[in-house]
C-alpha cells in the first residue's frame, strides 16, 4: 500500500473543509436539506472543475469533444453553430459491471448508460451533443444504433437531452405543465389520471420536478444547473419557471408554499394512489 504524502493529506483536508463550508452555507442561507446541499455541491464541482480541465489533466475514461452551445436555436445549420470543447466521461467502472457476464445485453446496457451520462454532462456544461457526435466521434458506431438506444431509453421513461430531441419536446412539455397546473389548482391525482391517462407515479414526478425547479430558481441556480440536477431538459425547466411565475400570486402563494413544504419533507408516494385524495 502506498501511503499518501504529507502534502496530499493536507490538500485532502483543505478540500473537505471547503466542501463542508459550502454545505453549511447552503443549509443555513438557503434552507437546503442535506440531500439538496450535497447535490448542489456535486454539480458545482462537475460544472466548474470540468471547465478547468485540459487534455493533460483528464481523468481516466474521459475525453474532450466539441459540442454545440445550448443557446444555438433549433434548426440552425450545424456549420453556423458555435462549438465549444467539453469534457465527457466515456468509460467508468460501472460500465464494466453492466457488461460483465451479460453478453450482448450487457453491451447494450453499458452503451445506453454511456449515452445518458454523456448527454447530461454536456448539459451541465451548457452544451448539447448530437446523435452524430455520439456515434462517430465518441462511441464508434452507426447513428441507427444510437437511435435504437434512444428509443429504448424513452421506453424506460428516461429523458436524454440531445440537440435533436430539443425539436420534439413541445408536446411532452405542454402535457407536463398542464398536469402540474391542475395539481396547483387542487385537482386530485385520480381526476388527472382519468383525464390525462398518465400513471400516478408520473404525475407525482412532474410535481416533484416543478417544485424542485421553483426552489432552485429562488436559490439563483441557473437553468442548466437545475436541468443537470433534476435530469430534465432546460426547455422544461424554463416552462416550469414560467408556470411558477404565473401562480406566484396572492391567490396561489399559500398553495405553492404548501407544495414546497411537502417537497422539502420528501414525502413518499401520494395518498391519491390509495384513495384519490387531493395532493
Overview of the molecule:
The protein has 2 domains: 31-166, no CATH class; 169-275, no CATH class. Strands 2-1-3 form a 3-stranded antiparallel beta sheet, sandwiched between helices. The chain is 62% helix and 6% strand. Residues 11-16 and 267-278 have low confidence and may be disordered. It has 279 residues and is mainly alpha-helical. The chain has 13 helices and 3 strands.
Structural class: mainly alpha
**Rg over alpha carbons:** 21 Å
Shape: globular
Quickly count the domains.
2
Largest sheet: 3 strands, antiparallel
Classify the beta-strand content into a percent band. 5-15%
User: Mean pLDDT, rounded to whole units?
Assistant: 80
SS elements, strand count: 3
Span of the ends, CA to CA: 55 Å
User: How many helical stretches?
Assistant: 13
- H/E element order: HHEEHHEHHHHHHHHH
Low-pLDDT parts are 11-16, 267-278
List the strand order in the largest sheet. Answer: 2-1-3
Helix share bin: 55-70%
Write the layout of secondary structure elements.
Layout: H1 6-30, H2 34-52, E1 62-69, E2 83-89, H3 93-99, H4 103-124, E3 127-128, H5 131-138, H6 143-155, H7 170-184, H8 189-196, H9 200-218, H10 223-230, H11 234-247, H12 253-264, H13 272-275
Antiparallel strand pairs: 1-2, 1-3
Helix pairs in contact: 1-2, 3-4, 4-6, 4-10, 5-6, 7-9, 7-11, 9-11, 9-12, 10-11
Key features of this structure:
single chain; 6% strand; mainly alpha; 279 residues; 13 helices; globular; 2 domains
Amino acid at each position: 500500500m502506498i501511503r499518501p504524502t504529507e502534502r496530499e493529506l493536507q490538500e485532502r483536508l483543505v478540500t473537505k473543509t471547503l466542501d463542508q463550508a459550502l454545505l453549511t452555507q447552503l443549509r443555513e442561507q438557503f434552507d437546503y436539506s442535506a440531500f439538496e446541499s450535497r447535490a448542489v455541491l456535486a454539480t458545482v464541482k462537475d460544472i466548474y472543475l470540468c471547465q478547468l480541465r485540459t487534455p493533460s489533466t483528464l481523468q481516466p475514461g474521459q475525453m474532450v469533444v466539441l459540442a454545440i452551445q445550448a443557446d444555438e436555436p433549433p434548426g440552425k445549420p450545424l456549420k453556423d453553430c458555435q462549438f465549444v470543447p467539453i469534457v465527457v466521461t466515456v468509460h467508468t467502472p460501472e460500465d464494466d459491471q453492466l457488461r460483465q457476464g451479460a453478453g450482448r445485453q450487457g453491451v447494450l446496457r453499458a452503451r445506453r448508460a454511456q449515452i445518458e451520462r454523456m448527454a447530461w454532462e454536456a448539459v451541465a456544461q451548457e452544451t448539447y451533443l448530437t446523435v452524430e457526435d455520439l456515434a462517430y466521434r465518441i462511441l464508434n458506431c452507426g447513428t441507427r444504433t444510437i437511435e435504437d438506444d434512444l428509443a429504448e431509453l424513452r421506453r424506460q421513461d428516461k429523458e436524454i437531452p440531445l440537440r435533436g430531441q430539443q425539436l420534439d419536446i413541445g408536446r411532452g412539455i405542454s402535457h407536463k405543465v398542464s398536469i402540474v397546473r391542475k395539481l396547483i389548482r387542487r385537482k386530485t391525482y385520480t381526476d388527472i389520471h382519468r383525464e390525462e391517462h398518465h400513471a400516478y407515479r408520473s404525475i407525482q414526478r412532474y410535481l416533484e420536478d416543478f417544485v424542485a425547479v421553483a426552489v432552485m430558481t429562488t436559490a439563483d441556480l441557473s437553468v442548466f444547473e437545475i436541468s443537470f440536477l433534476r435530469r430534465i431538459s432546460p426547455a422544461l425547466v424554463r416552462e416550469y419557471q414560467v408556470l411558477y411565475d404565473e401562480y406566484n400570486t396572492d391567490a396561489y402563494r399559500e398553495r405553492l408554499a404548501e407544495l414546497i413544504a411537502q417537497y422539502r419533507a420528501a414525502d413518499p408516494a401520494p395518498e391519491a394512489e390509495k384513495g384519490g385524495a387531493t395532493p
